[in-house]
Write a structure and sequence with these properties.
Elements (H helix, E strand, L loop, with lengths): L6 H17 L5 H7 L9 H11 L2 H7 L13 E3 L10 E4 L18 H6 L3 H17 L4 E2 L23 H16 L5 E7 L19 E3 L2 H8 L1 H8 L5 E4 L3 E2 L2 E2 L4 H11 L5 E4 L9 H6 L22 H8 L5 H17 L20 H14 L1 E5 L12 E5 L27 H11 L3 E5 L21 E6 L10 E5 L19 E9 L5 E17 L2 E21 L5 E9 L10 E6 L7 H10 L3 E7 L18 H10 L4 E6 L14 E4 L7 H9 L34 E3 L8 H6 L17 E10 L10 E11 L5 E10 L10 E10 L4 E9 L5 E3 L4 E3 L3 E10 L2 E10 L1
Parallel strand pairs: 2-3, 3-4, 4-6, 5-7, 5-23, 6-9, 11-12, 11-20, 20-21, 21-22
Antiparallel strand pairs: 1-2, 7-8, 10-22, 13-14, 13-15, 15-18, 16-17, 16-18, 16-19, 24-25, 25-28, 26-27, 26-31, 29-30, 31-32
Helix pairs in contact: 3-13, 6-7, 6-14, 7-9, 14-18, 15-18, 16-17
Bound molecules: 2-acetamido-2-deoxy-beta-D-glucopyranose (NAG) (10 copies).
The site of one 2-acetamido-2-deoxy-beta-D-glucopyranose has 5 residues, from strand 13 and strand 15.
Length: 880
Amino acid sequence: MGYSPDPAARGRAAWTILLLLLSTSIPTLAAAAETHPWLNTSYTPEHRLHSFLSALTFEEKLAMVQGNKSAETNACIGYIPPIPHLNMPGICMGDGPEGVGNNLANVTTFPSPILTVSTWDTTLNEAFGDALGAEHKAKGRNVVLAPTINIIRSSLWGRAAESMSEDPYLTSRMAVAVTKSIQDGNNVIACVKHFAAYNQETNRFGLAPEFDAVSAVVDERVLREVYFPAFKAAIQEAGAGSVMCAYNKLNGQHACENSWLLSDVLKEQWGFDGFVVTDWYFAQRSTVRAALAGLDNSQPGGDWMEWYGFPDFFGGLLEDALGNGSVSVSRVEDMVERLWRPVFRVGGVDRPSSGLAGIDSVARTQEHLDLAQTIVEEGAVLLKNEGVLPLGLGEEKVIAVFGADAADQAAVTELHGGFVLDTTMVVQKPLDFIRARAQQDNITVLYSEAYPGTNAFPTIPSSMFGPEGLNVTYWTTTDFSGAPNRTVHADNITSQSYPPDIGAVWPDVFSSRYEGTFHPNASGRYHFSLSGNGGGSLYLGGRLVADMAGSNFGVVVQGVADLESGTAIPIRFDYSMGYSVDPGTYGITVGVNIPAQNPSLYEHAVATAQSADVSIVFVNDAHTEGLDSSLGLRLPGDQDEVISLIAQHSKKTIVVLNTNAAILMPWLDNVDAVIEMFYPGQQVGSATARLLFGDVNFSGKLPITFPAASEESPTASVAQFPGVNLTATYSEGLYVGYKWYDEFDVTPLFAFGHGLSYTGFAIGDLSVYSDLDLRSDSTQVAVTVTASVTNTGPVFGKEVVQLYVRFPEAADEPPKLLRGFEKVALDVNETATVRFDLSQEDLSIWSTEVGGWTVVPGVYGFLVGSSSRDIKRQMNVWLR
Ligand SMILES: *[C@@H]1O[C@H](CO)[C@@H](O)[C@H](O)[C@H]1NC(C)=O
Ligand SMILES: *[C@@H]1O[C@H](CO)[C@@H](O)[C@H](O)[C@H]1NC(C)=O
Ligand SMILES: *[C@@H]1O[C@H](CO)[C@@H](O)[C@H](O)[C@H]1NC(C)=O
Ligand SMILES: *[C@@H]1O[C@H](CO)[C@@H](O)[C@H](O)[C@H]1NC(C)=O
Ligand SMILES: *[C@@H]1O[C@H](CO)[C@@H](O)[C@H](O)[C@H]1NC(C)=O
Ligand SMILES: *[C@@H]1O[C@H](CO)[C@@H](O)[C@H](O)[C@H]1NC(C)=O
Ligand SMILES: *[C@@H]1O[C@H](CO)[C@@H](O)[C@H](O)[C@H]1NC(C)=O
Ligand SMILES: *[C@@H]1O[C@H](CO)[C@@H](O)[C@H](O)[C@H]1NC(C)=O
Ligand SMILES: *[C@@H]1O[C@H](CO)[C@@H](O)[C@H](O)[C@H]1NC(C)=O
Ligand SMILES: *[C@@H]1O[C@H](CO)[C@@H](O)[C@H](O)[C@H]1NC(C)=O
């Protein structure tokens, strides 16, 4: 749709690549271009597409719609093989949204998208999308499985950091920026995901043996106004070439076989002409229903999925369905046409590709690393600052830094999802950069770990279970039900601890219970870790100490217990494996950090705090795809207590958060400054030091609301999140994020759009001009809003001016909706004018009665401010 390549530039690029190919592997290409019009860049992409389709046999087409896991590698986690006799390359798909994933090396670990969106800078998001597309291209991919553009409905969502924001308008603008720039000039296709209403990990595809997925129950108006807009915008404004359908059900029907969703809305109403691909492994549930609903491509496939009851639905079964007439030949033709259309459109054929060809290339560049740093500087959000920041104004002689998160365990990326797993990644440790920067001002920097980090601890040594060891009882069910299969002896609890002969049949499902006695060999605070795959609950003396709800992505969950040396405490560990998508990934290892191993962890922290002028405490959580937070909105372990302890002994305290999304801050009143940096990517160190010392000013703003208490959030009931009986009821309706706080007059801890600066801003001179005539069908600009913004403080800074619209009563909308934002850079005393042009669409609501968009006549409020809770100017205008 929105994609209009510059033909001259495309011609030049194609020519360069042609020469490259001539000089290397395919000497017949020039000759082939004459007889193979699909290779001739003089033709339009659509002409090339159809000439190619007419050269394929139907068998060849049929083979393209089903992925083949056995043909996959980390290079391409979704793969459609080349067609050598037509000189056509294959299609290679890969993760993910914050960099090249799937264990590929020499790539850039960018900040998590939630931080990139916190910049509120569309140009910077475009630069990110461009770099992301370029790195995927360098690694041989043609389809980038990004961006993730689902609404962050709850901060408990394990993939919040991988997504963008709680607001559909902000998410739409950023989705367009990232999607468009991934595709433009990189010869790769973006895959916007996950369509639709995929907002939680819990039961996203269910557990064995039923694999009954959660159903999001959402009414149509809410879908149209909250959960769809970013997808619609990415398709219509950025020309997204592919869409991934979600694991979950939507209103009782699997997303990948929901014809209203895929055919009526996506393809017919929005004009999407690319392909719909399944989410991997468990999203597709049928052949005929999915094919008829509008699913175009099935990934990853492979025989071994049959064990779970997931055959190659678009393999032999699709052939059967063609044979018995339940799926038409033309539907399959359509799938293949849709698959290749975006490939031709982005010039994906006109480059040496793909997959293995690029695997060893170095995709990471200095430019991308610099960009990653800029994103942190522009996206980090200064939540609170009471006269402590910036540092280095001569008030401090000694700075103390705390937390493994500042040093060896910097939480720079989520564990899986947007994840980058690059063995060559060099993380800039914040501590190193703070030291170097402090040295310039002759400030001494002390370090104290204070908290042993959120990584896994060493396996509990067998000796701690006493001479009797552990008994393990196995069930062949996942929930300890039925007669136990056997009880055996074990020395410890490690990921290898699956039953010898049950485990011989791979893959398998089972549950097991470890029982014995734990013998503390020192008194003090013990930190326990559960790491691995599956579900696990650790009990000490009957108390639940650590709980992992069930994941297959190698996550770590922690718990603490204060124990005394010489006691004997009953220990129990319940393990459940419902599925394992990767070979050999059974089991959870239970680890421990024994106070005796670091007896002075807290005493050292207190002493360090007391000898410094200011304390900077780095804390983090460790969330991931596959698992929602099992800790509520708390930080893992006893980090909250550690912050309070340090604050109590410090002159001034700064807290730096590296979290997935919003958390609670029980210590907020006792600290002087708080910075939210989410998962900031590998270039975290220099950016952190520069921000702390004021070498660069803060300008990030929150893209989500931080609640003051768990129950004070829009999705606080279990029925809403994560649902009851596999039903998540979106009963908050349109009141997602700040809209709920506004409607119900609840004061958040930190508001959507909030973010402080080292300077100050004034917003004034609001004017609203409208030539909207609802009686005509004008698609012109409906309303223009202008406002002035002045830097009234002492230093250069950037302000994000935000425009919210209050709809007339009759529209029955939340109190205000974001409809514009602009980040403005201003020198001291400088004034700029920002201008927002609102279209009729910006002022439309979904009318269930009409079954379409409509503008409700009445009084509209135009509110301009610095956050959703800091409105500086407003004006009412009567629109009719
Ligand atoms: C590509 O098509 C154009 C237009 O038909 C034609 O002039 C040209 O020779 C073709 N190029 C090749 C390499 O066949
Ligand atoms: C899948 O790929 C493997 C390895 O390339 C191949 O042996 C197998 O025949 C393929 N399966 C199908 C159904 O094409
Ligand atoms: C990363 O790139 C360097 C330089 O080309 C290369 O020597 C190294 O083998 C690459 N590392 C990996 C793991 O591919
Ligand atoms: C046609 O074949 C498909 C695939 O095997 C099967 O699911 C479907 O039930 C069949 N339909 C009829 C009418 O036989
Ligand atoms: C730091 O200390 C050195 C040596 O005492 C001195 O020359 C320099 O001026 C000091 N720098 C600052 C910024 O105070
Ligand atoms: C755990 O038990 C196994 C089996 O006895 C043993 O090989 C391994 O060394 C033990 N690990 C630890 C950390 O004690
Ligand atoms: C235990 O499970 C194995 C594997 O399923 C099975 O062969 C065996 O009969 C079971 N034993 C008992 C006592 O249930
Ligand atoms: C293991 O089971 C045996 C047999 O029931 C029992 O005698 C022993 O005390 C148990 N050991 C532990 C550590 O619970
Ligand atoms: C969930 O299912 C159970 C068992 O079928 C039933 O007792 C319970 O009422 C259901 N809860 C809700 C909220 O539907
Ligand atoms: C900014 O304006 C104030 C008030 O007019 C003035 O005192 C100050 O010098 C100005 N600062 C700069 C950098 O121009």
